[in-house]
Amino acid sequence: LYVPQNFVQNLSTGVVVSVGSGNLTYSGKIVKLEVKVGDTVAFNSNTAVEITIDNEKLLLLREDQIYCVL
């Protein structure tokens, strides 16, 4: 398996602290998320949106931006 160096440089890990109710389909159904609070995940740090809540920096990601649960 070849992993390009620029991919590895942007790879980050983090712990999920909150999740939403799921993804809304075109038909109006909600599909539950696969990730859950406490999961350690790998993601591209360039796709995350940084926010600050109560002086704590957090990253926002969609589930499809997460590469895997570690």
Structural overview:
A hairpin with a 5-residue loop joins strand 2 and strand 3. With 70 residues, this protein is mainly β. The strands form 3 sheets. It has a 3-stranded antiparallel β-sheet. The protein has 1 helix and 7 strands.
Regions with pLDDT < 50 over 5+ consecutive residues?
Answer: none
Helix content: under 10%
This entry's quaternary arrangement is single chain
- For the termini, the CA-CA separation is 18 Å
Could you give the count of β-strands?
7
Gyration radius over CA? 14 Å
Which strands sit side by side, in order, in the main sheet? 1-4-7
Q: Main sheet, how many strands, which sense, barrel?
A: 3 strands, antiparallel
Give the SSE layout.
Blueprint: H1 5-9, E1 11-15, E2 23-24, E3 30-31, E4 40-44, E5 49-53, E6 56-60, E7 66-69
Antiparallel strand pairs: 1-4, 2-3, 4-7, 5-6
Keywords:
70 residues; mainly beta; 3-stranded antiparallel beta sheet; two-stranded antiparallel sheet; globular
Task: Sum this structure up briefly.
The protein is mainly beta. The chain has one helix at 5-9, and strands at residues 11-15, 23-24, 30-31, 40-44, 49-53, 56-60, 66-69.
